[in-house]
Specification:
The protein has 237 residues and is α/β, with parallel strands linked by helices. The chain has a single domain, classed as Vaccinia Virus protein VP39 (Rossmann fold). It has helices spanning 3-16, 19-28, 31-37, 44-47, 65-74, 87-94, 131-144, 162-172, 184-193, and strands spanning 56-59, 81-84, 101-104, 117-123, 145-156, 198-201, 214-220. Bound molecules: S-adenosylmethionine. The site of S-adenosylmethionine has 23 residues, from helix 1 and strand 2.
Length: 237
């Protein structure tokens, strides 16, 4: 079984469960979870000066909390799109949303044309990907981003203590397989290898809960005709 098949099965079971397990999925991945676990993303419209022309894709959208939040906050004229491996997550996302579109697909193989989206986000997805799939994911994000578009990716990160890392992995793998927690520099290197000319540590803060470190990055595809300076450090002088 591949890691993608495993993640799909685990999230389908989690989102499709009844009782406390199903309730935890609806809480953690709904609007309440957006504020608690992805706190700085709530202000993304202000931070990135998003406006109604935004064309947003959220990869690993879960119950669609970020898709719905951003689309209504900026008054987007076009529907936003959420993709997820789990049809049970997408059913939940779609159940109270007449505006946006939800598509069952993997972020590593997106069913969208090149240069489609002005903003691509992916929250808490990449811990489920092995190294080859991580490279594929960033390549796909780069492909579907329109010139001048931005990518924002965030995930749980490693901490400096082995003991804490084991504890955090245990917390994060209650219902799914143990995560792969990568440092920000690794993520930046992979994104650069997948074609991103501009990518940086986004240092998003604060994340309220759970008390586990986060890594976040921002990347962009330059507008058509723009030439990136070879050595940006010379611009500081
Ligand atoms: C931890 S949940 C996060 C959901 C949402 N981003 C949030 O923050 O509420 C991870 C989601 O990513 C989805 N996922 C995992 N691997 C994926 C992949 N390769 N492509 C698309 N979705 C994926 C899972 O099905 C799950 O819904």
């Amino acid at each position: 079984m591949t890691s993608l098949q495993r993640a799909k099965g685990e999230y389908n079971t989690w989102f499709g469960s009844g009782g406390p397990k199903g309730l935890s999925a609806r809480l953690l991945f709904g609007p309440f979870g957006l504020w608690l676990a992805s706190t700085p993303l709530v202000r993304l419209p202000e931070e990135l000066h998003l406006d109604s022309t935004m064309v947003h894709l959220d990869i690993g959208c879960g119950a669609g909390a970020l898709v719905k939040h951003l689309n209504s906050r900026v008054g987007a004229t076009l529907p936003s799109v959420g993709v997820d491996l789990s049809h049970n997550a997408l059913r939940l996302a779609d159940s109270d949303d007449n505006t946006n579109r939800y598509v069952e697909a993997s972020g590593t193989n997106l069913p969208f044309a090149t240069n489609t989206f002005s903003l691509v986000t992916a929250g808490y997805v990449i811990k489920h990907l092995d190294d080859p799939d991580l490279l594929l994911l960033f390549s796909e994000i780069h492909r579907v981003l329109a010139p001048g578009g931005l990518m924002v990716v965030w995930e749980f990160g490693p901490s400096s203590s082995k003991l804490l890392n084991r504890w955090n992995s245990g917390v994060l793998s209650r219902y799914v397989s143990p995560p792969c927690l990568r440092p920000i520099n690794t993520l930046i290197d992979v994104a650069k290898n997948s074609g991103f000319e501009y990518v940086d540590n986004a240092r998003l803060r604060p994340f309220l809960l759970p008390p586990i470190p986060r890594v976040s990055m921002i990347g962009g595809k330059p507008p058509d005709g723009y030439v990136m300076p070879e050595n940006t450090s010379s611009l500081k002088n």
